[in-house]
Structure formats: C-alpha cells, structure tokens
Amino acid sequence: MSRLHDKGAEECLKRERERVSHYLHSSSETKLVEKVQHELLVVHVNQLLEKEHSGVHSLLRDDKLDDLSRMFRLYHKVTRGLEPVSNVFKQHITAEGTALVQQAEDAASSQAANGGVQEQVLIRKIIELHDKYMTYVTDCFQNHTLFHKAMKEAFEIFCNKTVAGSSSAEQLATFCDTILRKGGSDKLNDEAIEETLEKVVKLLAYISDKDLFAEFYRKKLARRLLFDRSANDEHERSILSKLKQQCGGQFTSKMEGMVTDLQLAKEYQSSFDEYLGNNPSTRPGIDLQVSVLTTGYWPSYKSSDINLPAEMARGVEVFKEFYDNKNKHRKLTWIYSLGSCHINAKFDQKPIELIVTTYQACLLMLFNTSDKLSYPEIMTQSNLSNDDLPRLLHSLSCGKYKILSKEPNTKTVTQNDSFEFNRKFNDRMRRIKVPLPLVDERKKVVEDVYKDRRYAIDAAIVRIMKSRKVLGYQQLVMDCVEQLSRMFKPDIKAIKKRIEDLISQEYLEREKENPNMFRYLA
Amino acid sequence: MPPRASKRKATASHNSSSVTSADDSPTGTITGLDNVILIAPSDKNKTKKTDRLDTLFDSYANCSSGIIDPEGIEALCSDINVEHTDVRILMFAWKLKAQRQGYFTRDEWRSGMKALKVDSLSKLKKGLPELEKEVNTPGNFQDFYSYAFRYCLTEEKQKTVDIESVCELLNLVLGSQFQSKVDLLIEYLKIQSDYKAINLDQWMGFLRFCKEISFPDLENYDADLAWPLILDNFVDWMKEKRC
Questions:
Q1: Which of A500, A515, A518 sits opposite B229 (nearest CB)?
Q2: Do B229 and A497 count as a contact with CB atoms less than 8 A apart?
Q3: Predicted local distance difference test score (pLDDT) of residue A24
Q4: Is A19 on the interface with B (CB under 8 A)?
Q5: Start and end of every Cullin family profile domain (chain A) (predicted)?
Q6: Going by C-beta distance under 8 Å and a sequence separation of 6 or more, which residues neighbour residue B226?
C-alpha cells in the first residue's frame, strides 16, 4: 500500500530527524536522512510507483491530490527521484488524451454527417483535460519543470492526431471559427469567450503544423469578414493579439491586415455612396456594395470571367471609375465568386426575396430573357465552366429550394439537362437564403501550405549556409529543423530534397574530400 | 609525303643545327644564300608532327565547319575497328578534353593526340589499352566518371541527363567494375518515378555508392548521412525486394 507507505515514510523520516537532534551530532543528520530515504523510497521505487492499486498511476486515476502532493515532497529530496514519477504522469495523460481522440474517431465514423460536431467536442474535452492536469502541475507538483515538460510532451503526442481526415490544425481553426461566428457562442458571456480563446491559443503550442492552422484560420476569417458573419470585432482582435504574443508578429500580420481592410472597406463604401449621391447620372440602378481588399493579406481566390448581367456590369464600371479617380496606381481584380446578392423573384403566388451568391444571381437573371435554357446554353451565356456550373445549378434546382425546375427531374445535374424558371415555387417566408454548399477547401489549403514550406526550407538552408559557410549535413538538418520548428515540423526527406535542388541551382556544393559536408557558394 | 615524313623522323634524334638544302620544306629556308637559318630539329619535327595530325584531322573533319562531327567520328571508329559506342571512345574524348559531345575541334585533336603520344591511326589503336589503364587509375577514374556525365550535357544550361541515357552511361562506364551493382541500380532507376533526370551530384553519388557500400546486404549504408535521396529510395527498394 504505497499511500500508507508514503505516509509512513514521511512519519519515519520525521521521527529519525527527531532522534538525530536528540542523540547524534548534527552532521550525521543529513547522511542518516539520506540513508533512510534511500531505503524507504529509492530501493523500492519502481514497485512503489507502479503498484496496481496504490502507485502513482492509481493516485492519478483516482484524483488523489493530497497523496500526490506528498509523493512529490518525498521524492523531491531524492536525487533524480522525480523522474519516474513524472514519467508515469506523462504516460497517464497521454493515455487519456489518446482515448479521447479515439472516441472522436469512432463517433465520427459511425455518424458520417456529424463529423464536424465531433471535432468541436474533442477540442473542448482536450481543453478540459489540459485545465485539469495543469492544476496538478501547479498544486501537487509545485510547478516543477519536470512536470511541465511531461505535460508538454504528452499533449504533443495526442494533439497532432487526425480525426476523420481532419488534421488537428484544421480542427482547432474550425473550433475558433465556431466561437467567433455569429450565433456560435450565444451561451457564453464575453468573459467566458475570452477565456476559451486564451485556452485555444495555449493548445496551439502543442500543435506542430502551426502554419497549417494559420492558413485554415485565415480562410475561415476571410469568410467571416466578407459575409459579415463575425460576431464581435473585439474578440477577433483579441485572439489575434494572443496569437501574436505566442507565435510572433509574422504569424498574425496578414490576418490583422484583413481585419483592417474591412474597416477601410466600410469607409470606402461611405464615400462611394456619397459619390453616387452627388452624381445621380452615374447611378447603376442597383444597390452596390464593394469591399476592396489588399491582395497580399487575403487568401488567394480564383476569379473567373463570368458574364455579368447588364445591371451588375454597369455597377462595376461606375465603381471602377470612382476608384480609379482616387487611386491612379492601383489595379482592381474582381472576385465575383465571393459576392452575395439580394434578388427579387416574382413567383405566381407571391414575390420572394432570395439571398444568393453573385454567381447564383447571374444564372437566375438569364431567365429574365429566356423561358427555357439548356445546360450548354447556360454555359455559353454565363461563361462559367464545368467546374462551377453543375454545383450552382444543383443548388438552384435540386436543393432545398427549387427556384428552377430541371428536366429531367433527376437528383444530379448533367450536360443534357434543361432548366426553366419555377413560377409555381412558394415558401411561407418572404425572404429565403438559397444555400450554396462550399467547395471543400481542405485539399487546396494543404497544397498551398506545402508549397510555402518548400520556400521556407530553402530560405532556412540558404540563411544557415550563408552564415556558416561550411557545414556538415547532420548539423545543417538539425539547424534547419530548429529554425522552422516555430511554424512546422519539416520532413527530413523534404529537407534533403531541397538541399539537392539548391546544389543543382549552385547555391551549395558538396565538399570533394568529405561528401557529408556542404559549402556555400557565394 | 609519307616517305618523306619517316625520313624526317629518322633524323630527328640528331641535334644538328643546319638545314640541308635537300629540304624543300617551305619553312625557314632561303635558297641561294650563304646564311643559314637555324631551326631546331625538334621544333621542325613538332611542326611536322602537327602537320601529320592536321592531315589526319582533315581526313575526318567536315570541310565547311572545320571540325570533326559525329559522322567523322563514326568514320574514325570504323577505321580503327572500334564501335563508336565503345567506352574506349569515351575515354578518347576524355583524353582530348572534348567539350562537345560528338565533335572534336582541331585544338582538342592536336593536344589530345599529342598527350597520347600518337600521330597515326594504327598507333592510336595500339595505344587504347594503355589509355584504358590510365583512365582506371584511382586518380583519373573519378575525373573520367565526372567527365562522362558532363559530356552528355549537350544543350546550353543543361544540368541533368534523362534516366534512359543515365542507365546506358552507367553500364558503359561502371559495368566492368561493378556489374551486379550497376544492374540493380539500373533496374531501380527504370522503375522509379520520382526522378525523370539525374544531376551531377546524384551521378557522383552513384560512384561513391558502388565503391563504399557492401552488396547485396547494404549493411553499412546510413540514410542519416548526406547520400542523395534517390539512393535512400534505392536502398529502401532493395530492402523491400529482399523480404
């Protein structure tokens, strides 16, 4: 019974000390205490620690904080006595964390549709686990570095696991998005939200693919900002400043730029409205709102050459004139795929306002001039490609709201289909949002991040070699990994490949006498 | 001219400083004068030798370009009875320090043939075994091996050679020394799809690999060292093959 043993040990030591102070020379105390300690604690240490019902393991399992504190006090005095204790601590946390991840994976595979929800649950549970064991470190283990280290290593193990195809970096970014979105954390007050954000940022420290998190975060932030889905500007800025503190300015500079852009965009909009007010002849006949974004800060978007309906085209022209007047040296690239539109549809029963994306609106407006259109005709008139068209037409004819009727009335859109305005459509609401399912961006994000990593590795290698001039391969790899560790964990093979490319491009050469050494070529 | 030439050669060893009037070589004599113009016989022989080399060169060179082109090389090869794909021709090119694959310039020809100490086809043919020996000395082989790759970089700024050609070249250049290793390496190169072409660093790695790594166990191969990645992949492939 280790607990009793420890308590007994503590008592024993106390009594020995008393005995020494009564009978023996004070110099004997230290040696005697050490000897007793050694006998009581060290000799039987492994048995004590690993005992099924009373070792550190069981104390942790049963949340016996007092006993753990005692154990810490005792083993603290023994040379290297804390190592086995911290090892068990680490194993225990790792096991619990891994079990949580497994639970999430199992739940996700049994309810395929709810994969996203499972991720949110997992992150919450990991945060709780972190809070719980952090208390142990501060209370029972007196903030000892060994235990901080044990916790860090444990979390690093299970915080980098993929669940249902989604990396931990993506899961964490989605979690943030949920909190920061409108309606995402209605149940929490501001203080609670701040606390959660704080904890999320702490978790990021354990994730090795921080650059992947940044990119997912940026994409979701873009959507929140552009579609006006952000719940609270202050929370947005707050998490950015926490991220900046933890990961450095470079990590958050683009995101901060994005938030600022939206501010500026609002100002631009006011002066555009003023301009229209002062120049009635320029008015395009539609209510136009434009967000001007600085290219470097935002994720890259494809912009396709869609044929805009006349009214929209006119609006674009007017804004262009207005903008060019104010900024002679800047070029505008229009990303229609990010726009949204409120469009009035006159159905037989009643008119309904439809909230759609710009692309969807462009397609619908084709039916102002034609009753029935085939897929190829729509493609020609809109100038959209087979990449976009099926998805768009599906959302308008096969989804929740059938604004268009499709012939034949099958569930998928093919090139042989034709479409008509569904005048018989009705809904009890006077305004509905016709959803367009998002294209899965995961693949593109991962691709983009991997591409950036190649450049980052190149830059690190060149930087290191430029300063060291001549360096051995293993040292170069180690230095590279260290430099890049703030953002990601580079694959050793990837580093080797980059070194080879740099040799090809004559930035480096292999030393003739020692093929494991490289030299920087100025 | 030939009989003349050999006669000239016979007198080469004499260190006479006079010019015989029987000599009607266009160089250096002013007939009808008592003055004698000194031409050291070695120089004279040199120019004679150069003449021979030039003549030989001219017999294979393209008239308009003034250099020996692939056709010329093929003719040369057939005349000395060696296949133009034979490794000894590559060694010959190395000795000539030929810059451009398939072509020999007059300067390259002159200096190379002189370095070989030959000035006729028959002598060239007889000199080939010694050339081989020379190439195969440790000091020279590395240089020859590197040259063999660079000789294939025919386009300007070309840095890599396609896999097909690399396989042929490996066989040609290393086949005799490391046949079994080369066969396996070639098999792998043809199967893999990571690399469509090989650069000089990888090429040199192949030689080092053949020299240093024990076959077929590959026990002393350490992937943590700076071996080219393609060799790491080759070793993985070999180990999988074994299982």
A1: A500
A2: yes
A3: 62
A4: no
A5: 167-397
A6: A473, A496, A499, A510, A515, A516, A518
In this complex, is the C-beta atom of A515 within 8 Å of any C-beta atom belonging to chain B? yes
How far is A417 from A493, CA to CA, in rounded Å? 49
Cis peptide before A408 (omega within 30 of 0): yes
A 10 A CB-CB count for B2 gives 9
Distance in angstroms (rounded) separating the CA atoms of residues A64 and A56: 9
Residue B208 pairs in a beta bridge with none
* HSE (side-chain half, CA atoms, 13 Å) at B232: 14
C-alpha B176: how far from chain center: 17
What is the helix, strand, coil percentage profile of chain A, to 5?
60, 10, 30
Distance between CA atoms of residues A226 and A31, nearest Å: 71
* Nearest to A337, CA basis, from A298, A306, A368, A377: A306
Distance CA B95, CA B108 (A): 9
- Could you tell me whether strands A351-357 and A431-433 are parallel, antiparallel, or unpaired per DSSP bridges? parallel
Tokens at A182, concatenated: 């409108």
Residue A44 CA to residue A38 CA, distance in Å, equals: 9
Letter for the amino acid at B231?
L
Taking only the tens place, the pLDDT of each residue in A419-475 is 999 999 999 999 999 988 888 889 989 999 999 999 999 999 999 999 999 999 999
As a whole number of angstroms, the distance between CA B185 and CA B40 comes to 56
What is residue A72's predicted lDDT score, i.e. its pLDDT?
83
Distance CA A306, CA A339 (A): 12
On the question of pLDDT at B125 being above 50, the answer is yes
Burial A236-254 (b: 16+ CB within 10 A, else e): bebbbebbbeebeeebbeb
Element at B135 (helix H, strand E): helix B121-135
- Tokens 């590959």 sit at which residue? B218
Summarize pLDDT for B198-216 with one digit per residue, the tens.
Answer: 999 999 999 999 999 988 8
At residue B35 the predicted structure's pLDDT band, cuts being 50, 70 and 90, is: low
Q: Which two tokens stand for residue A275?
A: 């301009």
Tens of pLDDT, residue by residue over A74-131, are 778 777 778 888 888 999 999 999 999 998 888 887 765 555 666 688 999 999 999 9
Contacts of B23 (CB under 8 A, 6+ apart): B29
- Across-strand partners of A517? A472
Measured between alpha carbons, how far is B102 from B70 in angstroms, rounded to an integer? 5
Contact residues, chain B, for A499 at CB < 8 Å:
226
Q: Tell me whether residue A421 is exposed, middle or buried, using C-beta atoms within 10 angstroms of its C-beta: 0 to 12, 13 to 18, 19 or more.
A: buried
Q: How far is A511 from chain B (nearest CA, A)?
A: 11
% of residues, chain B, pLDDT over 90: 52
